[in-house]
Design goal:
It contains two helices and no strands. It has about 100 residues and is mainly α. It has one domain. Helix 1 runs antiparallel to helix 2. The mean pLDDT is about 70.
Length: about 100
């Protein structure tokens, strides 16, 4: 009788531990999935920000070159200021459109 109780206790304990392991593995897999998703979203945002920044920079340079050649340091300073403006614009755009990657 006592051996039977010990057997039931051990099998119940094994089942409880296997359920615990299953729960642990599903939690770990879910965490990995969340990390991979967050990483992909970060890469998308970074690529979108870089694309916006490059586009604004090229447009600013074209606009300046169409008016006069780039020789003096004042023109170069203007380009630097436009780069900073383009970067802040792209950050604002990402803040307002967090999932609007296809809008480009």
């Amino acid at each position: 009788m006592k051996k039977q109780q010990q057997h039931h206790y051990k099998s119940g304990l094994r089942m409880f531990l296997s359920l615990g392991q299953l729960l642990h593995y599903s939690t770990v897999l879910s965490s990995i999935r969340h990390i991979m998703y967050a990483s992909a979203m970060f890469k998308r945002r970074k690529n979108t920000q870089l694309a916006l920044h490059e586009t604004a920079k090229h447009e600013a340079i074209k606009k300046l070159q169409s008016t006069k050649p780039l020789n003096d340091s004042a023109d170069k300073q203007t380009i630097v200021q436009m780069n900073v403006t383009a970067q802040s614009f792209s950050l604002q755009w990402l803040y307002k459109h967090p999932s609007g990657f296809s809008a480009l």
